[in-house]
Amino acid sequence: MPSTEKQGRAPGDASKGACGDTSSEPDPELLIQIARMKMPFGRYAGTRLIDLPEPYLVWFQKKGYPRGRLGMLLETLYVIKENGLEPLLASMREPSDPRYRETDPRGFREGDR
After folding, report:
1. Domain count across the chain
2. How far is 67 from 99, CA to CA, in rounded Å?
3. Which residue range forms the structural domain that includes residue 54?
4. Could you give the C-alpha distances from 101 to 4, 32, 90, 96, in angstroms and in order?
5. Quick check: is 14 in a domain?
6. Which of 25, 38, 71, 112 could form a disulfide with 65 if both were Cys (CB 3.0 to 4.6 A apart)?
């Protein structure tokens, strides 16, 4: 009898996202790590994950992400960039970063004109 489990996930985890739960709210700690962590290897070593160019993330999407936390962060970042949600991370950057913004842009909703 074939197993119905997805590889690398426990039974019942199929609906869980990168945040580790079924809610649509992202884990703030995860987003802060994406905004502040530096790429540990490769062509862009030393570059903050949020500043990695999208073609580099597309390359990982096609070739496969690294194992562990870094791979999960890169995969999440790919989805963020693919959907144009990078401005949501501006308030999570290091305060010394010139692209840091104290305000969260999520206060604006479509139709609030």
Report:
1. 1
2. 29
3. 28-97
4. 45, 13, 5, 10
5. no
6. 71
Per the CB < 8 A criterion, the answer to whether 35 and 48 are in contact is yes
CB atoms within 10 A of CB 91: 17
Task: Report the alpha-carbon distance of residue 72 to residue 33 in Å, rounded.
Answer: 11
> Which residues on adjacent β-strands are paired with residue 37?
none
Residue 74 within any structural domain of the chain: yes
82 assigned to some structural domain: yes
Phi-psi region of 40 (alpha: psi -120 to 50; beta: other; left: phi over 0): alpha
Digit-by-digit pLDDT tens for the chain (113 residues) are 444 443 443 333 333 444 444 456 768 899 999 999 999 999 999 999 999 999 999 999 999 999 999 999 999 999 999 998 888 887 788 777 777 776 555 565 555 55
Cα–Cα distance for residue pair 14/33, rounded to 1 Å: 24
